[in-house]
Every structure is written in structure tokens, then in C-alpha cells.
Amino acid sequence: MDRIYGEMAIISGTANPPLAEEICRYLGVEPVAADVFQFPNENIFCKLHQSVRAKDVFVIQPTCSPVNKNIMELLIMIDCLRRDSAGRITAVVPYYAYGRTDKKDQPRVPITARLLADLITVAGADRFLTVDLHAKQIQGFFTIPVDELTALYMFVDYFAQKRLSHPVIIAPDIGAIRRARNCAERLGAPLAIIEKRRALDGKHTDMFNLIGDVNGHPAIIVDDEVDTAETLTRAVRFLHERGAKEVYACATHAILSGAAADRIRESGLTELVVTNTVYISPEKMERMAGRITVLSIAPLLGEVIRRIHEGVSVGELFDE
Fold first, then answer.
1. How many CB atoms lie within 10 A of CB 236?
2. Which is nearest to 194 in space by CA: 153, 152, 272, 249?
């Protein structure tokens, strides 16, 4: 098939270089060399070592911690590529920050997920590629084409290979029901739902009820991200109190803010399975004392990048 744009080019920001390197190995290409750094006054600078004129460029930059620095770095890199006359620019953002601020659920608050979508578009991105958005409606915040991938199939395959005896899939809150239900359907397992209520400040969560039965069964909590792990570890204790034999969890994005690694280590969680959309430092890995397994999202992102570049259907990857 004839390519719609020029030669493929991959460029990485500083948020997750190992992921970008793995994607480049999958595609068999060398990344575009560039200087991307922060001056002492915190201004960010980007300079390409080679021209990307007319090329099909993919910028790999999750907007994880430090969130605002990585967002600005992404925007500046896109602007740099646009001013060098790139043929097409695809922002590859495996983790999309501010995804929880997707609606006005209180008076006088912003919709920051929409603001970020506007910034990426205005900077000059022609397409947007991401993994497991916190809310599906964020796709509609963009006026450019969006491809949202999911790590669900990776988690299903992983737990299918473990051959757990009669597991129960757990939605940790009402918002996670669809994701957990899809996982349960593919594993042929029953679904249970934790009813939880979060305080208005977003810092405290109480769990009120379990809709379903986990007594004597292994439980698998399914969510999109683990941030402070406070809700996760409370859910683990909650499920153990209701007779769960053992508790696993899977989440696409391992944010692991603050004391999250220590909470996971000290919890009764058997295993947390995540992907490498976000870079996890060796220090955090060590603090979790073997309770975490990291699956690589690079082959999936690499294959989708190849398909976008060649004008081949992305949806066919997930057709059953």
C-alpha cells in the first residue's frame, strides 16, 4: 500500500525514554535525535538534530509526573516539529493527565481535560494516540482524529494464563463497571461491584457495600490507573473481609504517587499488574517488594503507529 505521508520519524520527550526506545526497536527505526531540556529558569527548549520536513512524525510523551513540565515539553516539541514543516504530527500520549477533570461536577470548576485537548491541537498535532482514557468522552474533546487503545486484552491474556480457580472480577467503583464487565466477559468470570463514595475534596473514600460474592474465590480488581493506591489497598482489605481467597489488581497506568509503593507492599494484595505507559523507577519497584508485574505496551503502540503510518485499519487489531 502506498504511504499517505513521507518517511516515518519517531521522537521522544523525557517522560518515558525506555518506552520510546522499545517502540523504535519494534518498528526497526532510529529515533530522531534532539536536544530537549530545561533551562535553570525552568523554560523548556527543543532543537532537532535533523530535518523532519514532510515526514510522518510520532511524538512519544506521556503526561505523567512532573505533569505540567511534561505537558509543556509535549507542546513545545509539537510546535518545533510544525515549524520544521513536518508532513504530519501524531501526539502519542500513552497516559493523558487531567483525565479526571472531564466535566463540571461542582460549581465554578474547569474542564481541564478539554483544555489540554485544545492545547495539543493548537500546538499543531494532526492526530492523537493514547491508551485507556479515564473517561471515554475525552475523545470528543479533540477536533483531530483520536485513536484510543486499551490494555484490557493484555490483562485478560495474562490472567487467563495464570489459570486462577473461579476468579471474580471486581469493579472498584461505579465508573469502572464497563471496563470490569468487559474483562469478566472475556475471562468467563462473574462480576462484583464495590459501592464507594468519595469526599468532595477527593482525598477520602469510604466503601459501603459489595454487590456480588467473593467468599472463597480469588478476586481481580480492574481499574484504569493506580495513583496514591489508597483506594486500591482499602479495596483489598474490604475484599479480604468479605472472604476473598486472594486479591489481584490490574491497572493500565501505574502513577504511584506519594506513598503508593509502600501501601502496596504493606497491603494484602497478591499482585498488581500494570503496563509501562508511565515510567516506574527502580526505587519504586524495589519498594513494592515483588508485588508488581509490568507488561509492555510497546508492541501494541508500535503496531498501531505502523498501521497509522501505512494507512491500515487500527480497529482490525481488536476485531474478534
1. 27
2. 249
Residue spans of beta strands (DSSP E) within the chain: 8-12, 34-38, 44-48, 56-60, 88-93, 127-131, 146-149, 168-171, 191-198, 205-211, 218-226, 246-254, 271-275, 292-295
pLDDT (tens, 9 = 90+) of the chain, 320 residues, equals: 445 689 999 999 999 999 999 999 999 999 999 999 999 999 999 999 999 999 999 999 999 999 999 999 999 999 999 999 999 999 999 999 999 999 998 899 999 999 999 999 999 999 999 999 999 999 999 999 999 999 999 999 999 999 999 999 999 988 899 999 999 999 999 999 998 776 666 566 677 799 999 999 999 999 999 999 998 999 999 999 999 999 999 999 999 999 999 999 999 999 999 999 999 999 999 999 999 999 999 999 999 999 999 999 998 888 75
Backbone angles phi, psi at 156, to 5 degrees: -60, -45
Query: Quick count: other Cβ atoms within 10 Å of Cβ 183?
Result: 23
What structural domains does the chain harbor? Answer: 8-149+298-318 (3.40.50.2020), 152-295 (3.40.50.2020)
| CB 75 within 8 Å of CB 89 | no
Q: Catalytic site residue 55? A: no
Cα(first)–Cα(last) distance of the chain, in Å? Answer: 24
Q: What is the DSSP letter of 318?
A: G
| pTM listed for this prediction | 0.94
Question: Cell for 204?
Answer: 477520602
- Residue 145: count other Cβ atoms within 10 Å of its Cβ: 12
- Can you tell me whether residue 181 is helix, strand or coil? helix
Cα angle 23, 283, 58; round to 5: 20
Catalytic residue chosen out of the listed positions 196, 203, 245, 284? 196
Count of CA atoms in the C-beta half-sphere (13 A) of 153:
10
